[in-house]
Structure formats: C-alpha cells, structure tokens
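Reopening this one. Same input as before:
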Amino acid sequence: MNKVESYCDENFSGNYGISQNPDTKDYILVFSQDYLKQYCKVCYNKYEFEWCKTCQMNILKSNFANWTSGNRNINSFIQKMQSKINKPGDIIFEWIPYNNFINVKEIEGNCLITTIWKNAPFYYDISKKEWTRVSYEKTCLRNIYNSQYLTDKLLNEVESYLLDYENERQRYNESKKCQNYGVSQNPYTKNYILVFDIKYIQFYCEKCGNKYENSYSKWCQACQINYFKNNFTNWTSGNEKIDDLIQEEQLKYGGHGHGTVFEWIPYNMINPLWKYHMRRL
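Same output, byte for byte:
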C-alpha cells in the first residue's frame, strides 16, 4: 500500500482511482491524461518538460555500440561527458567523424579553424519528444596539438578547455548560444580536435587558442608579445642597453588593444611640425 500511495501525488489533481486486470489480477492505478505530462510512461519517474533523464541516459548507453573514435580513452571521455546531461536543452557531446565537416577554413599555424558541420548538432526536440539534428551548423574546431598519443595529462587538458568555455558562457550569460559539441580527429595529422559552436572564436584567439584579454577588441597578449619578439631583429638603437630597455618595456605592454607601444624612434622620423616633448638624457 505504501507503494500505491507513493504513486498518488497529493499535488496532482488527476488521481481517479484503482482498478484490476481480470486476466493478470494486477491492480491498476487510474489517472487523467495529464499524468503523462509529469511522469515518464516508460519508467514512471517524475520529470519536467516530458523529458526523463533516466530514460535518456539508457538511450545513450544503448547507442555506445553504434559509434567509436577508435580510441578507448576517447570513447570513455565522451561517454563521461554524455552522462552529464541534466535537462532537455543540453546538447549531446559526441564523436564526430572528420568527414562530416565541409568548407574547412584552415590557416597553417592557427589553433582554431572555422567550418560547417553537415549533421549538427544533436538536441532534444521537446515538441516531438525525440532527439534530432540541425544540419549545416557553423562550428569552430580547436586543434589539440601533439595529441596523437593520448595521456591522462592531455585528457585533463582537453577537459579544462571545455570547462573554461563553460565558465566563459556563464560569465557572458550565453549558455543557450554557446555549446561544446564533441571530439573529432584530423585524419592527416592524427591530432584530436574539440568541436565548439562558432561563438568560440569571439572569446579565444584564432592563432594560439588562448583566451582573449579583451574579447571585444580581440586582444591576445601572448600573440602580441610574440609579435614584438619576432620584430626585435628588425630594429636597433645602436646601443645594447637601450635595446634591452625598449624590449623590456614592449614585453610588459598590456594595453588590451589600447594605448601606445614603447619603441625606438629614428630621429629622422620625428616631424618637426608635430608637437612632441623631447627630453635630453
């Protein structure tokens, strides 16, 4: 009787009564049709939005045999990410074959790549009560360099990228627009690739993959410092100590896309018509 009482939700007004199957002799609880809006018709667990986490997890687990990355560690990682779904709006993190990408715009040396995912992404359609896809989605691929041979350290690094983007999404209140889609692998380099929505390139540098210091101006301090370093051989004051001073000041530059860069200025580049204050050293 306790079990029967547990099924009769006191907050649900459609508890009609009890009947009995004459053939099996099993007792039956009778509810209004609205019962199915609050309780799963497969496992009878209570749910919201007619979406049952228990049943959805069982569907994902039963589908494990239908895909593989070819790497046991990657498979386990994807399965772990899939187990984190908690609501119907969550995108399913998955293995994405590289041939599902078209118009791959790859620039040599760049960490981030833009492309179109033909069969993307996997999401739950509440009105149809089923998983479906939106075809031809613009996406951003992040190269994981030297990942041909996976280690636990490398997998932790991969997970940190996903978590960092999760935090960035929440920071800018972009949770419904920014998504982690899954993992793929470049068939030529054998490097693994993380697949994000196209908004990823608004927060992370296309060249090095570091988070922008300023996402509005797309200011990447690491790339700017590398630019200064690579340019050191293109100028000299003629005095080693002066050169060292200028280089030191340039490497401290943190203008976030604003301000001026301290530099060596040849005297003949100073226009006498411009207003400067020059101080003799």
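So the earlier flakiness isn't reproducible anymore. For the record, The first strand starts at residue 15 and ends at 20.
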